[in-house]
């Protein structure tokens, strides 16, 4: 990871935060928070943005259904498509701040 941050001059990590539909944190959120803490410790100059990842998996499945992706392939790409939605949410957030 250190090599990637130097090679690509990364200034922000975008992390999906697993939150329940009622707004409470999931058990997975605790693990994510520990991961974020480690990122802060290892890369103190790099900003970490937490993005609510509720419904990203649902949106990913809708996208895959629309594209006609076969069931066997869905398991391989669902996390990637969800990550795209998380990044898109972040990009829209910073776009709207300007």
List the secondary-structure elements in sequence, H or E: HEHEHH
The helix content, as a percent range, equals: 55-70%
Count of separate DSSP helical elements:
4
Query: Biggest β-sheet: count, sense, barrel?
Result: 2 strands, parallel
Radius of gyration, whole Å: 15 Å
Tell me the total number of β-strands. 2
Mean of residue pLDDT values: 92
Strand content: 5-15%
User: Major sheet: order of its strands?
Assistant: 1-2
The parts where pLDDT drops under 50 for at least 5 residues are none
CATH architecture of the largest domain: 2-Layer Sandwich
Q: Assign the CATH topology of the largest domain.
A: Nucleotidyltransferase, domain 5
Number of domains: 2
Class inferred from helices and paired strands: alpha+beta
The gross shape turns out to be globular
Highest CATH level, the class of the largest domain: Alpha Beta
- Give the termini separation: 29 Å
CATH superfamily heading of the largest domain = YqgF/RNase H-like domain
Keywords summarizing the entry:
Nucleotidyltransferase, domain 5; 12% strand; alpha+beta; two-stranded parallel ribbon; 98 residues; 2 domains; 62% helix; 4 helices; 2 strands
Condensed summary:
62% of the residues lie in helices and 12% in strands.
List the helices and strands and how they pair.
Blueprint: H1 2-7, E1 12-17, H2 27-42, E2 47-52, H3 56-67, H4 71-97
Helix pairs in contact: 3-4
